[in-house]
Design brief:
Protein name: ATP-dependent DNA ligase
Low-confidence stretches: none
Largest sheet: 6 strands, mixed
Number of strands: 15
Helix content: 25-40%
Keywords: Ligase
Strand content: 15-25%
Mean pLDDT: 97
Radius of gyration: 19 Å
InterPro entries: LigD_pol_dom, NHEJ_LigD
GO molecular function: ligase activity
Order of helices and strands: EEEEHEEEEHEEHEEHEEEHHH
């Protein structure tokens, strides 16, 4: 057992040498160190948002699980927020992450990947993020880059900013920051409308068909995570894959790079990247939008 002092907090780190990742080996202590290094850029994307936690107590080579409920034995200083369950009439208390000490607590719990809601805990039905997941049929990342750039251009026609991120797995996310005025159903309908228009423009390469056997080798424009109580991988979160790849925000000129892949950046390379380029998503909330005008324009196209 190790203990880390972070500000006024004393955060235990059990079994710090436990290997969580392979190729190369990355331990629980390494994960805690990574979280500490990226906390300044990662925390703004987590604060005030309920978190779904993807845990791998025995490392990524064994079965992991999602934890959504705040553990009863969590330290008192680890904050929780009660949010309504969809359609069930009750609430669940979920962890929020406002500070570095809480990030390290998550590392102690072998939380490999953090998945925040797209809304804040105090207004859970009013998203502050719209996310389109670009899900390729295989390893064809050229189609992912094509879809991201086409989606950026379409959103630009609607007067909306767009921010790209490799997922650290297979594809990319394109995100639109929102003020939080529209409710989740409005946001989801708008996202689906955007995906439908883009798929219609490029029917040979893109689709909104959820069934894999009907996609015909096309990339899926997945907007399902814009539904209530769903979530998306956090910027700078590692993924449970060999090499510890990381979901990494990008500038758009990086999407033009033919050598880009979803797993280019890892827990070993991201800190140096942040030193060089900072956080490309660092000012997204300054560009948050209301969807009303864009939604009217989109309806006029259909």
């Amino acid at each position: 057992m190790a203990e880390l002092t972070i500000g006024r907090r004393h955060v235990p780190l059990g079994n710090p040498g436990k290997a969580l990742f392979t190729d190369p080996t990355t331990t629980k202590s390494d994960l805690a160190g990574y979280y500490r290094t990226v906390a300044t850029v990662m925390l703004p994307h987590l604060r005030e948002r309920p978190l779904a936690l993807q845990r791998f107590p025995d490392g990524i080579g064994s079965a992991g699980f999602f934890q959504k409920r705040r553990p009863d034995n969590a330290p008192d200083w680890v904050p929780g927020a009660r949010v309504p369950r969809e359609g069930e009439g009750d609430t669940v208390e979920m962890i929020c992450c406002p500070d570095e000490a809480t990030l390290v607590y998550l590392a102690d719990q072998a939380v490999v990947t953090v998945h925040p809601w797209l809304s804040r805990a105090d207004r859970p039905r009013h998203p502050v993020r719209l996310v389109v997941d670009l899900d390729p049929p295989g390893d064809d990342f050229d189609t992912v880059r094509f879809a991201a750039l086409a989606l950026r251009d379409l959103l630009g026609e609607l007067g909306l900013p767009a921010y790209p991120m490799t997922t650290g797995s297979r594809g990319m996310h394109v995100m639109v920051p929102l003020v939080g005025r529209q409710d989740v159903d409005e946001v989801r309908r708008f996202a689906r409308g955007v995906a439908d228009v883009l798929a219609a423009r490029h029917p040979d390469r893109l689709t909104t068909e959820m069934r894999k056997d009907r996609r015909g080798g096309r990339l899926l424009l997945d907007v399902m995570r814009n539904a209530y109580a769903l979530h998306a991988v956090a910027p700078y979160a590692p993924r449970p894959l060999p090499g510890a790849p990381v979901a990494t925000p990008l500038d758009w000129d990086e999407v033009d790079d033919a050598d880009l892949t979803a797993r280019r950046y890892t827990v070993r390379s991201v800190p140096g990247r942040i030193d060089r380029v900072g956080d490309p998503w660092g000012r997204v909330d300054r560009h948050a939008r209301i969807l009303s005008t864009a939604a009217r324009r989109l309806r006029s196209w259909r």
